[in-house]
Design a protein that fits this description.
This protein is mainly alpha-helical. It is built from 9 helices and 2 strands. It starts with 22 loop residues before the first helix and ends in an 18-residue tail after the last helix.
Amino acid sequence: MFRTTSKAPTTPTAIKEHKTRTWPLYVLSLPAFVAIWSGWVGIGEKTGFGEVKLLPGIIDELKINTAVTLPIGLETYAAYSMYAWLTAANLALTTRRFAKFSALGSLVLGMAGQAAYHVMEALGITTAHVSVIIIVSAIPVIVMGLGIGLAHAMRHDVLAARATSDVPEEQVAPEPVPADETPDEDVPEERVAPETVPADETPEKPKRFRTKRVKPVETDSTRDERYAKGLHAYHVSKQGPGRPLSQRDLAKVMGMKNRELAIQIQKDYAAAVEAGTLDDLILRVLGDELARAGEPKPEDDGFRYLSEDEIRANVGLRPETGESGEDVNAVPA
C-alpha cells in the first residue's frame, strides 16, 4: 500500500529588509574632504581671499579667513543638488532636471578649481590670473542663488504633492438599521416585488428618429414624358399672342423644381427654329405622345393610330401636301 501524506499549505516567507550600509561613504569622503578643503583654501588665498574682521570696531579680535567659504559653499551645494536629483521624492520633472544640471556643473567647477590650484602651486605662482580671480570670486554668489532656487522649487513640489494626497475620498455612510428590526440568520430573505409604475405617471415617450425622404429615381420614360409635355406647352406659348413661358414657368408646368430640362427645351426649340426643322422636332417628340393620347383601347372597335395631319392639327402645325394637293400622310380608311 502506498502512504500519502498531506502537508499544510506553506505561507510565503517575508523578505527581510536590509538597510543600505553607508559607512564606506565616510571612509571615501574623509580623504576627499581634506584634499578639496586644502585646494579651495589655497586657491582662495591666491585670488584675494584672506583674513577679514567680522565685526570691525566692535570686536576687532574676531577674524576669519574667507577662503574657507569656497569649499563649504560649493561642495555642500553639489551634495545637496545631487540628493535632489537622485533621491528626493515628490519632485517635478523640471525641478529634478534643474538639480541634475546644477549638480554636474558644480562638480565640474570644483574639479577645475582643484586643477588650477595644483598647477599654480607646482609652478610657484603666488597670484592667480585675472580671469581665475573673477571666476573664483563669483562662486559664493552663484552657489547662493542656485541653492535658494532649488530649495524653493523642492518646497513647492512637496507642498503640491501633500495637498493632493490629503484630499479625502468620498465616503458613503451606511444605511441605519431600524431598532425594531433585528437580523436573524435563520429567517430566509424576503423577495422584493418589482416596483410598479403608478397610474398617474405616464411612461416616457420614445424618441422619434427622423428619416430621410428618398427622392424617386427619374427614369428615361418619365423624362421623355416631361420633355414632351414641356415642349408642347412652350410651343403653344410661342404661337400665342402673349409672351413665351419662362424657364421657371416651364419647369412648373412639368412639375419640376430644377430648370435644367426647361433650359434644354428652350435651346432645342431655338436651334430647330434657326435650322428650319421645327416641324420635325414637334413630330418626333410629340408624335408618339399624341398618338397614345388619341388611340382607343385595344378592345374597342376601330382601333387606329392618328395620322400626321391629325397630329399637326392637335399641335398647331400646317399639313404637308404633295404635288397633287393630296395629303401625303393620310391613313386609308
